[in-house]
Amino acid sequence: MIEQLHPRILENKDWATLLFVLTFAVVAMTKSAYETRFSEFSKLIFSDKYAKIYRDNSHMKNSFTVGLFFVQIVSFAFFILLTLNIFGHASKTDWVLFIQIATFLLYFILGKYLIEKIVATSFNIDEFVELFNLQKVTYRTYIGVLILPINAVLFYYNNIPQIIPLAIIGISLCISVYSYFISIKTYQNVIIGKLFYFILYLCALEIAPYYFLYYWVTKGSA
């Protein structure tokens, strides 16, 4: 009797491995080129010294920020892909979906930034929004770098409990709320002088986009 043979489907993880290596290399090169700054950056959650030293908006477009912005996009895209996989909605080796997620994140962040620039010009709060954006980018990048090694571990393990990504999301939200608290504390004098515009800015550009994004995602998956 001839045994019935079943094809063995192998998942292609090479693209992810190369991307992890590249991303960790970017972090290593950034650390080497900006040793003192990276050291302060790594202590961001425990101290606001970094936020006070590098509060000039000229730091928004230097190689330190740009390099880690790439890391941030890759890290968040991997985390979203892995979360979808853990909840049974996608394959973690789907590189096409990864590219789609990374592209969406890139356009969402940059588009939101450009809209904020337009609104800031309209409200005549350009300088404050630039500084506020720098704070947000700093803490968002910190979260991205923080979860990058976790992504690497989760990617090569199967049967990950659903509580793991939920816990990471919870911790990330806590860090984000903390970043807003630090920003408000740092720029409280400017905020008090333009309180109405600041509240309008928060509602229109910090709360509404994420609410509609959440609504769109949950409605689409329903």
What keyword list fits this structure?
globular
Structural overview:
This protein is mostly helical and 222 residues long. The protein has 9 helices and no strands. Mean pLDDT is 82; it is low at 5-10.
Write the layout of secondary structure elements.
Elements (H helix, E strand, L loop, with lengths): L13 H20 L1 H8 L6 H5 L9 H24 L8 H29 L2 H30 L7 H24 L1 H6 L1 H27 L1
Report the average pLDDT across residues: 82
Query: Quick one: how many beta strands?
Result: 0
Determine the N-to-C terminus distance: 48 Å
Radius of gyration based on Cα positions: 20 Å
Helical proportion?
over 70%
Low-confidence stretches: 5-10
Outline the biggest β-sheet. none
**Overall SS class:** mainly alpha
| Contiguous helical run count | 9
Strand residue content: under 5%
Give the topology string: H per helix, E per strand. Answer: HHHHHHHHH
Q: Would you kindly provide a brief summary of this structure?
A:
This protein has nine helices and no strands.
